[in-house]
């Protein structure tokens, strides 16, 4: 009989509990994933009780309050606090999101905060994005041209062509969509995932780019593109309201059109 064991550091253990002060009025409970690679211990779930009367309205505000007033060892990423940098992507109550754009009041009861799934954890809520960014670089996310640029003007495009980029350029590379995709969980070494494929289509859709054939050649692969099975987790979880599944379908359509001549 086959025997299966869990990977190292995959078993969660109970952690510390930090109770709210006795005079707290509006107490909310936060359960947060903690793991420090330097200790050699298994990850744990620490519990923090916050009086949200003394806290900002967003989940990120609660995390900052915990770090600033309760436990300075908590590690996480954050930057813009406006939903445009993608730094604070986390899994909250089972769904990936940007915690700077999610209100505490949008979650009933206990709020459970974990790092993005599937990725290796650097520490606590900090995932290792190295592979994700390497995949992004692999699609060459910049305009490639063959004709020389105009001598005294930019490369222009019509309003209609510019409109084709709406729903694509807004991606902030938070990786919420890719790390919610089961196909990416199982095949991330070769499958590019929804975020990178949406970015790939952004350049295919750009009328100023002149390397459509080369870009499609790179994507026409049973794993890079065709591991997408239209599960739609990516579109459901995108905190920017984008539709990576549609972008992937558009790439497939371009490949079919090219085959048909």
Can you put this structure into words, describing what you see?
This protein is α/β, with parallel strands linked by helices and 261 residues long. Helix content is 28%, strand content 15%. It has eight helices and eight strands; from the N terminus they run E-E-E-H-E-E-E-E-E-H-H-H-H-H-H-H. The strands form two sheets. Strands 1-3-2-6-4-5 form a six-stranded mixed β-sheet, covered by helices on one side. Strand 4 and strand 5 (95-98) form a beta hairpin. The longest helix is centred in the last third of the chain and has 16 residues, at 244-259. The chain is globular. It starts with 12 loop residues before the first strand and ends with a helix. The mean pLDDT is 95.
Task: Offer a concise description of the structure.
It contains 8 helices and 8 strands. It is α/β, with parallel strands linked by helices. Strands 1-3-2-6-4-5 form a 6-stranded mixed sheet, covered by helices on one side. A two-stranded antiparallel sheet has the order 7-8.
């Amino acid at each position: 009989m086959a025997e299966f064991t869990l990977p190292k550091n995959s078993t969660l253990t109970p952690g510390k509990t930090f109770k709210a002060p006795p005079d707290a009025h509006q107490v909310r409970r936060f359960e947060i994933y903690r793991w420090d690679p330097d200790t050699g211990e298994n990850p744990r779930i620490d519990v923090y009780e916050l009086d949200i009367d003394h806290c900002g309205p967003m989940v990120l505000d609660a995390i900052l309050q915990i770090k600033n007033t309760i436990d300075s060892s908590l590690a996480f990423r954050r930057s813009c606090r406006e939903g445009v940098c993608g730094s604070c992507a986390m899994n909250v109550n089972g769904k990936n999101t940007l915690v700077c754009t999610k209100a505490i009041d949008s979650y009933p009861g206990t709020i459970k905060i974990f790092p993005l799934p599937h990725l290796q954890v650097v520490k606590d809520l900090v995932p290792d994005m190295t592979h994700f960014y390497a995949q992004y670089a692999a699609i060459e996310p910049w305009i490639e041209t063959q004709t020389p640029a105009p001598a005294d003007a930019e490369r222009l495009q019509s309003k209609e062509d510019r409109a084709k980029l709406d729903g694509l350029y807004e991606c902030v590379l938070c990786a919420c969509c890719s790390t919610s995709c089961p196909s990416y969980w199982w095949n991330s070494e070769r499958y590019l995932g929804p975020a990178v494929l949406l970015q790939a289509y952004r350049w295919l859709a750009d009328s100023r780019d002149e390397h459509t054939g080369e870009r499609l050649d790179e994507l026409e692969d049973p794993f890079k593109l065709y591991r997408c099975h239209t599960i739609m987790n990516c579109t459901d979880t995108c905190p920017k309201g984008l539709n990576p599944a549609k972008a992937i379908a558009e790439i497939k359509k371009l490949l079919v059109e090219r085959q048909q001549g």
